[in-house]
Design goal:
TIM Barrel, 43% helix, five-stranded parallel β-sheet, 2 domains, 15 helices, alpha/beta, single chain
Length: 378
């Protein structure tokens, strides 16, 4: 295999159903990708992820560089073997983590100098270093190093970050090509589109990115970082129609059910987010009727499953009352069971969306689904 392929099978309006093929397997799209920041999806094993239908997961360059170090991962057989996950893996470049640790870093055209949040040691990540770390880790897809700014950033700030991201992208591409020439491999590099909520900057990002090179996939970054949902949807509505149709579109950091479904309707193929596991560990479950706070006393004697429509281990085995008991008693099993359900919920939602796109019934179905979901959470 010389590289990834993407076959677009069906469209209903802007919504798309395709198949992405990578060295470690195939990914039917649309698809939600669980986040395994430190080579683990919190509270879930690879067996758990397989059971809920995960076909691709994320790990993070920044965190694995700091601990245990990319050379350690490589010495143990690479990222797939290290985390016992045989299916496709994508690594984020670390740009978002650098953004989220603003008080510990400085940014210039060369790269980012920062202090480790673990031990305070001085570190620097340049575009070239981000490529080297990801090449050593060995994921199927490596992400370009980008400059992320808050979603509320003004035009001048967003334009400066976009210009830097574009310069860094050229350096990432050159260095990644060099690494591939020195030690041939099947890893592919995807760019990240920045530009904040400003339509002209987003158009500029698309033009500059695809003038630079052809790509096997593209990510939409810089959303879900403080801007309103209306602004996020507005960016997507303007951006996806001008993206190449023949490659997958990955919306970074978005994974609440309603956001996922609205983005699918606007032509997005791939998603990732820590929301399902973070909410699961806090006792909040996604259901077709809205989110449930399982710490609520109303569930103390509720014998119903978490979500009657769900086929996961949690919903087919345990009651809401039992799950509430686990959180009240601070038992670790509760964290696993609700996280497992939330991840399955999003994967199943993407699978259902795919089936309706193929059948040509997506438009009505997704509007009905959103109306039902948004009636409220309890």
């Amino acid at each position: 295999m010389t590289g990834p392929t993407f076959v677009l099978e069906h469209c209903t309006g802007e919504a798309r159903a395709g198949v992405l093929t990578l060295p470690h397997g195939t990914v039917p799209t649309p698809m939600f990708m669980p986040v395994g920041t430190q080579a683990t999806v919190k509270a879930l094993s690879p067996g758990d992820l397989t059971s809920v239908g995960a076909t691709m997961i994320l790990a993070n360059t920044y965190h694995l560089h700091l601990r245990p170090g990319e050379e350690v991962v490589a010495s143990l057989g690479g990222l797939h073997r290290f985390m016992a996950w045989p299916r496709p893996v994508l690594t984020d470049s670390g740009g978002f983590q650098v953004f989220s640790l603003a008080r510990l870093r400085t940014v210039d055209d060369d790269g980012v100098a920062f202090r480790s949040h673990i031990d305070g040691s001085a570190r620097t990540i340049t575009p070239e270093r981000a490529m080297e770390i990801q090449w050593t880790l060995g994921p199927d897809v490596a992400m370009a190093f980008d400059h992320v700014v808050p979603g509320t950033a003004d035009h001048t700030t967003a334009a400066d970050a976009l210009a830097r991201t574009t310069r860094w992208l050229a350096r990432c591409r050159t260095h990644h090509d060099r690494l591939r020439a020195e030690a041939p491999g099947h890893q592919t590099l995807w760019p990240i589109l920045q530009g904040g909520v400003h339509p002209d900057l987003r158009r500029q990002a698309v033009e500059q990115t695809f003038e630079l090179a052809e790509w096997s996939g593209v990510a939409i970054g810089g959303l879900a970082v403080g801007e309103s949902k209306a602004d996020m949807y507005g960016v997507l509505a303007r951006l996806t129609p001008v993206l190449p149709a023949g490659i997958p579109r990955y919306l970074m950091g978005v994974g609440f059910p309603d956001d996922l479904l609205r983005a699918v309707a606007m032509g997005v193929d791939l998603f990732d987010c820590v929301a399902p596991t973070r909410n699961g560990r806090n006792g909040t479950a996604f259901t077709a009727s809205g989110a449930l706070n399982l710490r609520n006393a109303r569930f103390r004697t509720d014998a119903a499953p978490l979500d009657e429509s769900c086929d996961c281990e949690t919903c087919t085995t345990y009651s809401r009352a039992y799950l509430r008991h686990l959180f009240a008693a601070e038992e670790l099993l509760g964290l696993r069971l609700v996280s497992l359900h939330n991840v399955r919920f999003l994967i199943r939602l993407a699978q259902e969306a795919r089936s309706h796109i193929v059948a040509g019934t997506f438009d009505r179905w997704h509007h009905d689904w959103l109306n039902h979901y948004q009636r409220g959470s309890v």
